[in-house]
Amino acid sequence: MKRISRAVIILTAFCLIAAHLTGCARVTELRLFAMDTLLDIRLHGNTADSLEADCDKLVSSLEDKLSATIDTSEVSGFNQSERGCTLSDETSSLLSLALRVADAVGGFDVTVYPLVELWDISHAADDWTPPDSDEISDALVHVGADKISLSGNELTKTDPNTKIDLGGIGKGWAVGSLASTLADEHPEAWGTLSFGGNVATVGTKPDGDYNIALRGPSGTELVGEIRVESGIVAVSGGYERYVDYDGRRYHHIIDPATGYPSENDLLSTAVYTAEVTPEAGALADALSTALFVLGYERAAMLVDSGALDELCGCEVGLVLITSDGNITSHGALKEAFYSYGSES
Description:
Elements: E1 2-5, E2 16-19, E3 27-34, E4 37-44, H1 51-66, H2 74-80, E5 84-86, H3 89-104, H4 113-119, H5 133-140, E6 148-151, E7 154-157, H6 167-185, E8 190-195, E9 198-202, E10 210-215, E11 222-228, E12 232-237, E13 241-245, E14 248-251, E15 266-273, H7 278-294, H8 296-304, H9 307-312, E16 316-322, E17 327-331, E18 337-339
Antiparallel strand pairs: 1-13, 2-10, 3-4, 4-8, 5-7, 6-7, 8-9, 9-12, 10-11, 11-18, 12-15, 13-14, 15-16, 16-17
């Protein structure tokens, strides 16, 4: 068994790289570690001396609420409870968005955590082996959005063994929160934030669009770039974290319907939302996972039909890389994605 752990200094999934023109303005670059990944901040223009401390405080506060591995977090409090618990306004707002995606799209379910724990791909040791079908069936019994109910800030469950994981939506919320806060507090600054496969723009780039380059699944070549005035891009791919065992690769994105790592015709998805808000970031993050699980045909249809624009309350775009290397762009990215190779 060979375990692959890609260095977190390289952004996961498509690996997003924001292209900047430094000009003559002051450039502030920060790198923080939070939520088990790197947060990279690059801003042009005047920023406050407290920038690093302010960013660290915001992200740490979110992690303390949302982490499934911090015993004192709200998520852990729910997971350890028999019937449920009271959430903060922020956590309940985020969970509400997650449930909307699960209901409207499918392929994304925060109650998948019993399966995430069972597979444990992100922390696999050298003696890792895949769970057997009976173990997966037993875990699936406790999975399903119908097993939890959110009323205001009260989250309850009908199954004591049901657990939630907000890892597939929390970083998007965090990057949207940070970007919108920085834009408000540093109105003359502009730049980008990169956080765990999510990139958000901050402010208005004075000389034109932001260029957000997408790296392909190989991790070595750029496949194209997104050119937009502003927005958030979230990416997902089965090559971010995986384990090779007995000639087969198992990645970390679990299909909540089957209990197994998703298998379809996609290598990766990149979802773009035109707004820069916590909600838009969270939805982009969750949708990148959901559409990856659903596969090419359904993912493309949902974006091309405009259904996700309505769900997100803003324009949504999509770039897909299929298992045969084909690259397609959809929705708001149909004309805003520029491929470095062939695109259909």
